[in-house]
Amino acid sequence: MRNFDYYNPVKILFGKGKIAEIAKWIPKGMKVMMTYGGGSIKKNGVYEQVMDALQGFDIVEFGGIEPNPKYETLMRAVELAKQENVGFLLAVGGGSVIDGTKFIAAATCFEGNEPWDIVAKGARVNAALPLGAVLTLPATGSEMNSGGVITRQSTLEKLAFNSRHVFPKFSVLDPMVTYSLPMKQVANGVVDTFVHVMEQYYTFPEQAEIQDRFSESILKTLIELGPKLIHAEKPNYEDRANFMWAATMGLNGLIACGVSQDWSTHHIGHELTAFNGLDHGITLAIVLPGVMNATKIKRREKLLQYAARVWNIDTDQPDAADQAIARTEQFFNELGVKTRLSDYGVGIDTIDRIEKRFRERGDFALGGIDDVNVDNVRAILTSRL
Ligand code: NZQ
Ligand code: ZN
């Protein structure tokens, strides 16, 4: 196992009715800016629950944060937060709203001239407004991590940033608020969580037994739950609760402790969203099987561990590794997520743009391990047409 530092200060308020408790965790007298997305919270009762819980606080609202939150939109929120002298941010929504709010928190306190540098150049974040979150879509893990992914409309760039200053002070995970999710978003969330785990697990054996078995338990839970969630006639509380916790555990840093990681599927996926607007989860379902195929020789040992422990495949069979890759793709398909670029009308022109962009950025290894790199990204994507 490698050396590691682990720090996670996020208070989790999990379960039915927990939104009612948020006022306890917001400093009294703070002006609160409540941020949200395109309006789903106004249709499913979450907005009212939050407003009831915040009685007595001075509240400013900022709605309209779009999926794959845009820098241009978020900078309007930064202006508003400064104008109104906001002291606390409350993100109510999915990963996009939470990520966007993390950026607002950092950009409001940013001392440099160009807040985009936080994302594009990794400019140092020395302070941020404190924030809390009410999660409405299990998927990204943003509710319990210190990362965010922001898109710049004018340049079609989608990039991640990270700062310990943007860990939420608390996050509410009430499975009931997921009942209004369209099935497509449930499927995206299952795929996103699955791929987060894979990016932290599918590398090399490093004798990190706890982390490996945690990862495998999340993957197996998703394999069991995914089809149940998608095919249920009506939402089942326990299934939603397990899904919500799986998504949070998938990307809160715990399973990444002491192991190698490879985030290439995400990095390639972000480009597909930037250029073609594909949902985040969909891009991952397309790219992961290609990445697994391209790395299956170098990472054979871990792939066989995955095959045996996650899919119960007999690894004495010569094609066990290929079976594991096929089962992974089939799982995404069973959730109703199509896994080919051509299913979404994406062709060679996008592959050209993506390869060019990675070359311009000059990073050789796309996600941390050099078996997925600027020289084979074209082949990986072409194999997914
Ligand atoms: O905007 P509203 O009206 O709220 O509707 C949203 C949006 O249209 C809807 N929705 C959310 N909760 C709902 C609901 N509809 C009905 N009922 C509910 N309870 O779902 C749509 C998608 O929401 P979004 O927040 O975009 O989805 P998700 O949570 O999948 O977030 C995706 C973003 O997170 C980034 C992605 O790149 C993408 O930008 N990621 C962030 C990560 C992180 N911070 O650690 C890691 C991830 O890998 C990911 O990259
Ligand atoms: Zn993701």
UniProtKB/TrEMBL annotation:
One GO cellular component this record assigns the protein to is: cytosol
InterPro entries for the chain:
ADH_Fe/GldA (IPR001670), ADH_Fe_C (IPR056798), ADH_Fe_CS (IPR018211), BDH-like (IPR044731)
Domain (Fe-containing alcohol dehydrogenase-like C-terminal): residue spans on this chain = 187-356
Q: What is its EC number?
A: 1.1.-.-
| Domain Alcohol dehydrogenase iron-type/glycerol dehydrogenase GldA per the UniProt entry, residue ranges | 9-175
- Record keywords: Oxidoreductase
Molecular functions per Gene Ontology: alcohol dehydrogenase (NADP+) activity; butanol dehydrogenase (NAD+) activity; metal ion binding; methylglyoxal reductase (NADPH) (acetol producing) activity
Give the highest taxon in the source lineage.
Answer: Bacteria
SUPFAM superfamilies for the chain: Dehydroquinate synthase-like
What the entry lists under PANTHER family is as follows: ALCOHOL DEHYDROGENASE YQHD
| UniProt family annotation | Belongs to the iron-containing alcohol dehydrogenase family.
Q: What is this protein called?
A: NADP-dependent alcohol dehydrogenase
Q: What is the source species?
A: Butyricimonas faecihominis
Cite the source lineage.
Answer: Bacteria, Pseudomonadati, Bacteroidota, Bacteroidia, Bacteroidales
